[in-house]
Amino acid sequence: MIGVYDSGYGGLSVLRQLRAVLPRHDFIYLGDSGRAPYGGRNSDTILDFSEQCVERLFEEGCRLVVVACHTVSCVALRHLQRRYVPNAEAPRRILGVTIPAAEAAVAQSTGHIGVIGTTRTIGSTTFSLEIAKLGPHRVTGHAAPLLAPIVEEGWADTDIARLAVQRYVDRFEDIDVLVLACTHYPLLLPAFQKAVGPGVQVLDPSPHVARRLVDWLTRHPGFTEPGQGKLSLLCTGDPEQFRIHGEKFLGGELPRVQHIAEEQGRLAHRDRMQVVIGQVVR
Amino acid sequence: MIGVYDSGYGGLSVLRQLRAVLPRHDFIYLGDSGRAPYGGRNSDTILDFSEQCVERLFEEGCRLVVVACHTVSCVALRHLQRRYVPNAEAPRRILGVTIPAAEAAVAQSTGHIGVIGTTRTIGSTTFSLEIAKLGPHRVTGHAAPLLAPIVEEGWADTDIARLAVQRYVDRFEDIDVLVLACTHYPLLLPAFQKAVGPGVQVLDPSPHVARRLVDWLTRHPGFTEPGQGKLSLLCTGDPEQFRIHGEKFLGGELPRVQHIAEEQGRLAHRDRMQVVIGQVVR
Fold first, then answer.
1. Nearest C-alpha in A relative to B162
2. Beta strands A266-269 and A257-263, pairing class
3. Disulfide: which of A41, A192, B147, B257 matches B233 by Cβ 3.0-4.6 Å?
């Protein structure tokens, strides 16, 4: 069973690609939708949340976790790997999305790569650092803090989305590839393609992430075995909202979503979502 | 000295009104901008953050704290009051914005009040509960999760903001007053006024909050004394960003902003903002 961790719904667009190339594998997806968005949060908070989520997936029996969220991959992946994968003999592994995305960008660009993502993804400069290891390409990053909320609101196919995408895209000059470094952005692909115009390729990294995972599994047998193509879903927010929003990202109906919530520093299962009305007193 | 606490910049629009009616009082404003927005967060997190912020203002010497944030006022005010103001002899007090806003709405409405705010503010139904204590008015609330981020992005005066406001306002039917139950929304006032059309009053509660505070101070002498009209600012996010964004809300230049950050469950002063580049390892 492969664990897939994201800050919310967006990573389901990555999971979709992973299931397409590994149809017989079982997946368990954990979306931290109750605490999303991560993009504007401070680093310590992102480290705390990501530890809780990865530990939950390990407890579910995963030996391999894919961090589908670009913010977590850019900020916290090395921390998670140092903490949970101390050496080459460690029984568990954690993979991210930044390096596959950087590799795909370098393969497609002849000079100047644009990267668009959350404030924290862009502020980390991790994409620039990873691309610099692969080639002499110039990299320009711009944060687009409104785009994930617009997609979460279900407004991807509105003039609001198109105007916002255009406004952010206009900040880039002379790029030939634009990396969508947030798992929400594939839902804005038509808006991006229109906004960049001809001559610029809009790159959704998730198919590349999926291909690199297949390579990795070939080179690292034993971390997961094909199963029955089952999918389990956990989320920290409202499971019903998760199910409704999630369909757009996964491209099909979702199975039952199990609610989990923070309890003394870990993510515990809950029988049902606690809906708080009025003032909360504890 | 009066403490004013908000999740970010927005409460500066309330502070502006407070300083207008109490020009000789000293104020200290704490904006939790590093952890904003609160609106989509779970209740436990909001309680934790609000405790830290209120405690920080008490440590600064405030005996009176005004919670300027509607999300915190709707969700956590009773909790804060029970924790820090256990009885009528307690040396400190905490006031919110919900009741003054509800009173102003009831005074202006002849029947059906609309309330627009964050997901958590609307989900709490606290406005309905408070309005029900004051009169037989019907109340309809709708969450507008994109509006605060649009204002924070500096896009209040764009077509994106106008289209989003229109889309949210269209969800209300037959209201005669629309309460702007988020401190960011006064910056969208022209868009709201245009969107509601004639016959609906758009209500910014902050002048009413200021007037009710003056009444309260008359009835409760000793919690604060007039000073020299000084203003101090603390924030958990980037102080320079806070200064730039804050000017729009305060309506004038901000004094130096001091950075504070979470450290072992409390908000400690920091000499300078820690900017993290690349992967974070701890």
1. A160
2. antiparallel
3. B257
Supply the pLDDT for residue A278: 82
Each residue's pLDDT tens digit, B172-220: 999 999 999 999 999 999 999 999 999 999 999 999 999 999 999 999 9
**pTM for the predicted model, two decimal places:** 0.90
pLDDT, greater one: B25 or A38: B25
Q: Chain B within 8 Å of A155 (Cβ-Cβ)?
A: yes
Side chain identity, residue A93: R
What's the complex ipTM? 0.87
What was the pLDDT predicted at A273?
A: 61
Catalytic (active site) residue B182: yes
B277/A123 CB distance under 8 A: yes
Among B124, B236, B279, the residue with its CB nearest the CB of A75 is: B279
Would you say B77 and B68 are in contact if contact means Cβ atoms under 8 Å apart? no
DSSP code string of A136-182: S-EEEEEE-TTHHHHHHTT-TTSHHHHHHHHHHHTT--S-SEEEEES
Whole-angstrom distance, CA of residue A28 vs CA of residue A56 = 11
How does the average pLDDT of chain B come out, rounded?
93
| Domains B2-96+208-269 and B98-204 are alike in CATH topology | yes
The distance in angstroms from the start CA to the end CA of chain B is 38
Q: How far apart are CA B163 and CA B48, in angstroms?
A: 35
Q: Exposed e or buried b for every residue in A3-42, given b needs 16+ CB within 10 A?
A: bbbbbbbbbbbbbbbbbeebeebbbbbbbbbbbbbbbbbb
CATH architecture of A2-96+208-269: 3-Layer(aba) Sandwich (3.40)
B184 three-class SS: coil
Task: Give me the CATH code for the A98-204 domain, please.
Answer: 3.40.50.1860
Beta carbons within 8 Å of A195's beta carbon, 6+ residues apart: A162, A165, A166, A169, A170
Identify the pLDDT of residue B207. 97
Is the Cβ–Cβ distance between A137 and A111 less than 8 Å?
A: yes
Task: Give the span between the Cα atoms of B152 and A208, in whole angstroms.
Answer: 34
Look at residue A272 in the predicted model and tell me its pLDDT: 63
Spatial distance between the Cα atoms of A43 and A10, rounded to a whole number of angstroms:
20
Is B74–A279 a contact, with Cβ atoms under 8 angstroms apart? yes
Query: Cα–Cα distances in Å, from B120 out to A96, A280, B257?
Result: 32, 12, 28
Measured CA to CA in angstroms, residue B272 lies from B28, B65, B246 at distances of 19, 26, 19
Q: Is A278 within 8 Å of B155 when comparing Cβ atoms?
A: no
> What pLDDT sits at residue A275?
64
Cβ atoms A161, A135 nearer than 8 A:
no
pLDDT digits (tens, 9 = 90+) for B147-156: 999 998 999 9
Mean per-residue pLDDT, A104-109: 98
Does A163 contact B158 at a Cβ distance shorter than 8 Å?
yes
Q: Where are the domains of chain B?
A: 2-96+208-269, 98-204
Smallest CA-to-CA distance from B120 within B181, B166, B171, B165 is with B181
What is the per-residue pLDDT for B34?
A: 83
pLDDT tens digits, A250-266: 999 999 999 998 877 78
Q: How is residue B67 written in tokens?
A: 């919670």
